[in-house]
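Support request from a user on the community tier.

User writes: "When I paste my structure tokens into the form, the page sometimes reloads and wipes my input. The last time it worked, I copied everything first. Here is what I submitted, just in case something in the input itself triggers the reload:"
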């Protein structure tokens, strides 16, 4: 069996609260309003669910020339925003790339 594929706006996810174990944002957060998207990710995650984010590192590539980028984050800036919504387990640079890798956890009571 395959799960259906749903195309949706990350600012308004069409899912019930607490239904997913993991939400991934691979080169997404730099293109969106982060607080709205992180709130939605948190809403649809189960308690202790994980969020995985990969994004360009603003320290290593401050200007990629992509007009769709709203904000390029440094590792510290990304951590500051995400920890408003999730407990951060991993925040590091991906070896031999210019990207940041973050794993956050939705606390069971939040």
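"...and here is what came back when it finally went through:"
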């Amino acid at each position: 069996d395959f799960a259906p594929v749903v195309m949706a706006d990350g600012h308004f996810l069409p899912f019930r609260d607490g239904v997913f174990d993991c939400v991934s944002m691979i080169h997404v957060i730099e293109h969106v309003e982060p607080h709205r998207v992180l709130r939605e990710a948190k809403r649809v995650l189960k308690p202790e669910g994980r969020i995985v984010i990969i994004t360009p590192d603003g320290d290593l590539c401050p200007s990629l020339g992509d007009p769709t980028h709203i904000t390029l984050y440094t590792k510290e800036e990304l951590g500051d925003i995400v920890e408003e919504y999730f407990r951060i387990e991993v925040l590091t640079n991906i070896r031999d790339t210019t990207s940041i890798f973050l794993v956050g956890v939705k606390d069971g009571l939040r």
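Agent notes: The reload is a front-end session timeout and is unrelated to the input. The mean pLDDT is 91. The CA atoms of residues 3 and 71 lie 32 Å apart. Escalated to web team.
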